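Hey team,

Filing this mostly as a record. A colleague (T.K.) asked me to run one chain through the structure pipeline before their review meeting, and I want the input and output archived in the tracker in case anyone asks later how it was produced. No errors, nothing strange. Just documentation.

Input sequence:
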Amino acid sequence: MRGREINYTFWGEPIDTNWYEWYLAVRTLFEKCGYKITHYAIDSESYHPDRAVTALRKEKAIENILKTREVPKSIECYSVPKDYITLIGDHSLCCIRTRNFISVIVRENAMQHLDESAILEMKKYIRFESGEVFSADKCNSFFISYERTEKMKSSHHYELIKAIEG
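Output structure:
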């Protein structure tokens, strides 16, 4: 087995006014867990690169987009080691926000750095309807958050840890 990851996902209706506040909370979460954002993937009206970008080079540009209250289609924040091969496969911590969900994904072997209360705070950045903490094969919980289907869950060794209440 390639390893497992733990995924906290919060589904709900969008709130379009707090993306910058969410981003600041994500930065704080990374720091509390002992990580630093190294890469971003963003899709917005004014900025949509065809691949992830390094935080070192594009952090200010992404912050400016969020400060203007532009609502991205999605943004992903990753912490990967210098010798990474793929962002999705090698991240220690990842936070994703789309209009319909927010996910925090952490490698099982990085759980000792986890600040669960800070992760659960993420649900306030969406009109929270439901949530789950689950584990899945490495790289696959990312797709389960997007797809949210039984077929996807059964094909990637999905294991529900707990449902998250409002």
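Quick notes for T.K.: The beta strands are 4-13, 39-43, 53-54, 74-79, 93-98, 101-107, 127-137, 159-164. Residues 19-32 form the longest helix (14 residues).
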